Amino acid sequence: MPFFMSHFSEVLSCAICDLRFDLLTRLPCSLPCSHTICSGCLANFRDGTATRCPLDKTEGKLALGALPVNTAILSVMQLDWTQCLTVKERLSVAMATVGLMDEAARHNYLAGVERLEEIASVVARAEALNKPLQRKLMSLFQCQILLEEGRTRSFKAAKSVCERIVIELILQHQNQQQLTSHLWSAVRARGCQFLGPAMQEEVLKLVILALESGSALSRKVLVMFIVQKLQPIFSQASKTSVGHVVQLLYRASCFKVCKCDGHSSLMELKEEFRTYETLRREHDAQVIQIAQEAGLRIAPEQWSSLLYGDQQHKSQMQSIIDKVWRKKNCLTETGRQAGRQIDR
Fold this sequence. Notes:
The chain is mostly helical. It is about 60% helix and about 5% strand. The protein has 14 helices and five strands. The protein has helices at about 5, 40-45, 70-75, 85-95, 105-125, 130-140, 150-175, 175-190, 195-210, 220-230, 240-250, 275-295, 300-310, 315-344, and strands spanning about 30, 35-40, 215-220, 255-260, 265-270. A three-stranded antiparallel beta sheet has the order 3-5-4. A two-stranded antiparallel ribbon has the order 1-2. A hairpin with a 5-residue loop joins strand 1 and strand 2. Helix 6 (about 130-140) runs antiparallel to helix 7. It is elongated.
């Protein structure tokens, strides 16, 4: 079985009946919302005349029974659909239904489908693809480019694929020793510090021990408490180094700060961060964000090694990386929209 099919088989099956797509009764058809459902299941919804997605109720401009077959997915599955009359008939009906009769428009649409098929054929022969790239490719293949909203999704998905490929190339060719040096330099430049996997873990646990009940302490008292607890185990622990770790959590907005007249400000750990798991995740996200701000691209397995000293946290690191990227892209898009409003 090809690599892609064996590692991503769940998206090569119908989202309704969960059966594998084929060339007979279960042809894959992608909706404008990017859900992909087999032709057999689509025909069951008001005899194929329904226009809403049966999964998320997204309204479409084309009857479900008239959607064209997603040939890119068939190409990924290495199924020869070129002699399948049903595929060609559904395509003709779909183009006529949306009024795609202009020669130039038909040519552009068919050219786009052909490019997706070519990419899918290359992917089907690939010996290995990492999961982030797999997900982004399948998002691209599931776009319904016959309709405008689907084409918009495909542009975003194609951009995401290209960005992922560039990141993969960077990761493969960068010097790991220099990368690590640049990372910790970027962290220190922001007044923060990483003390090594074991010591950093103990500092975070001591922060929770001191503040988990909802009590509020000044930064100075909190740092002194942690140093006193740490020094019997880590003799190198100092107020400066621990203070830099506290600053990292401060940057991550883990504290509520109460300013007192004539006294030092008091810090209280926010309720959502009073467990080690939640505090650690926010801590890791802040380090990853600093790396991205510094233009550094680090693979999940490298992050697992750097922050935990093992390879057991790879999937957790990937999840945090994706979250940080989504937040960054959302802020970028918001900035662009604000800029367009100002220009108007």
